Structure formats: C-alpha cells, structure tokens
Amino acid sequence: MKKDLGHYRKAYTKSELIIENTPDDPIELFKEWFNDVDASFPDQEANAMTLSTIGLDGYPKNRIVLLKMFTSEGFVFYTNYDSDKGQAIANNPKVSLSFFWEGAERQVIIKGVAEKVSESESDIYFNSRPRGSQLGAMASNQSHKIESREALQNKLESLEKEYEGKPLKRPNYWGGYLIKPVAIEFWQGRPNRLHDRVAYEYNENTGWIKNQLAP
What we know:
Blueprint: H1 26-40, E1 48-54, E2 60-66, E3 69-70, E4 75-80, H2 84-91, E5 94-101, E6 106-116, H3 119-128, H4 131-139, H5 149-162, E7 174-188, E8 196-203, E9 207-213
Antiparallel strand pairs: 1-2, 1-5, 3-4, 4-7, 5-6, 6-7, 7-8, 8-9
C-alpha cells in the first residue's frame, strides 16, 4: 500500500519570533506562549505535551501526557511510577517534552532531567482530582497486560464498593515528576518554510544562553 502525502501544504503566516525581543529566561517566554494559546484556543488542550523516554529495550517512545504545573524549576506531570514511562525514567531520567500548538503555528521542545516530586506534592494533586480519576489510578496497573476490559471494569467497581463513603489515599506507585530543563527551543512557523527558531541552553556558570537557529 502507498499513500503519497507530498501534496500536503500549509502556509505559516500568523506570527514571528524575533530573538532580540525574547526574554533572557525561557520559562518567561513559555509562560507567554502558553497563556496566549490557552486564551486564544479554548477548545484545545494547551497543556497536552509529548513525553519522550528511552525504554528499557533501548528504543525511544513517545506518548501524550498532560502538563499540570510549570515553575521556574521546570515542568510537572503525574503518572503511575510502574508504567512504561515510569520504568524508563527510573532507568534513564533524561527525557524530552514537546508542545505543538497548531492554531498558533508554534512548537516548543524541551530537553531535561526527570525527578520525582515530593510525596506531599503528589498527595495534594491526587486529592484535587475527581474521585473517579482517583479510583481509576488505583484500579489500573498501567502499561501491564490485563485479562480483559471487563476485568478492569470489575476491579474499578470493586474499589468503588470497598471505599464507598471513605476518603481515598494516593497509591505509593502513583505520583508526579518534575522535568528540570537543560535546553528549550521555541519554533514559530513562517512563510516559505523559513521558520523562526530560538534555542536556549542552560550553563551552570552563566545561566541561560540563547541562539537563533536556521530552519
């Protein structure tokens, strides 16, 4: 089977990224872009990001996760620590995050090192989740083989009965990761594929250094 996509074309004309107008701290630029996308495209999940890890089999693997917080330290998401991604991070904490905001014709790529957030931080976020999501996290042995969808649903229903009227406690295998960035690249689509790219790299001695890259 063959499907030729060579005729797919899109012109990028919505904005520009001028390095002289960018802040010294890339987190400030990320905040500006994120808020702009979040306000301008409410139907999109602005916090949806691709997380890339190196699996135990040596292959890279990408999946969509949801950003739940960003600070001057980095970017936080939550997951099952025993999942494929959790095991991959335990083996190699160097990861990549990427955001593609189609409506704004923008992309952000982040290289960083993952570390677990504190148990208290994970508790606070877990307790803020809808009860159904809490029970789902307790029911799912994420990434592991299951007998059937019916078996998973039965496990959820069993937990609902067991904890009816009772508070739920975060499982110790579930929690957050903080991705501390070492490099962040901002991409703005431009006409004729001459896109704007500004890359920041972190140096322990001098802080963030930024450069413009060829498209």
